[in-house]
Automatic annotation (TrEMBL):
Residues 5-81 form the 2Fe-2S ferredoxin-type domain. This is Nicotinate dehydrogenase subunit A. The keyword Manganese does not apply. The keyword Repeat does not apply. Gene3D superfamilies: 3.10.20.30, [2Fe-2S]-binding domain. InterPro entries: 2Fe-2S-bd, 2Fe-2S-bd_dom_sf, 2Fe-2S_ferredoxin-like_sf, 2Fe-2S_ferredoxin-type, 2Fe2S_fd_BS, Beta-grasp_dom_sf, Diverse_Oxidoreductases. Keywords: 2Fe-2S, Iron, Iron-sulfur, Metal-binding, Oxidoreductase. It comes from Noviherbaspirillum suwonense.
Length: 159
């Protein structure tokens, strides 16, 4: 375990300084120190997707990512995708498709979908399902989630 210190992060396009042990999991810094509660703790082993954030545009499990691994890198949480007044197209599509039944997995799903649409703005259903494969949904909203991602992609084409 490394000793405490200051770790510089770029979170949702804002420079942040965290006074913590560099081995602290990113999820703990986001939720407990930066008050960004959208990232959810699920399995604690990086296998469920509830804690995914974008690091340099790629989905990464924040539960098993230490601060030192993301120091100076661009981190986007679900709060950084959009706002209540101006939701990201994916967030709006999730609302329109009623894709959040219990909502626990939603932030991770949105993060994985945002990464997909960044690298492929026009995916087909199989590509959406493959991109969301690491995200678990226990309440059965998966088909609505897939429709929401396809809907957001269709909206990208009309812009």
């Amino acid at each position: 375990m490394s000793s405490g210190g200051t770790v510089a992060l770029q979170v949702n396009n804002t420079p942040r300084q965290i006074d913590a042990d560099a081995d602290l999991p990113l999820i703990d810094a986001l939720r407990d120190m930066l008050d960004l509660k959208g990232t959810r703790f699920g399995c604690g082993a990086g296998q469920c997707g509830a804690c995914f954030v974008l690091v340099g545009g790629h989905p990464m499990p924040s539960c098993e990512t230490p601060l030192w691994a993301v120091a100076g890198k661009s981190i986007t949480t679900v709060e950084g995708l959009g706002s209540p007044g101006a939701p990201h197209p994916l967030q709006q599509a999730f609302l329109d498709e009623q894709a959040a039944q219990c909502g626990y997995c939603t932030s991770g799903m949105l993060i994985s979908a945002a990464a997909l649409l960044r690298r492929n703005p026009d995916p087909d259903e199989a590509e959406v399902r493959a991109a969301l494969e690491r995200n678990l949904c226990r309440c059965g909203s998966h088909n609505r989630i897939v429709r929401a991602v396809l809907r957001a992609a269709a909206g990208n084409k009309s812009r």
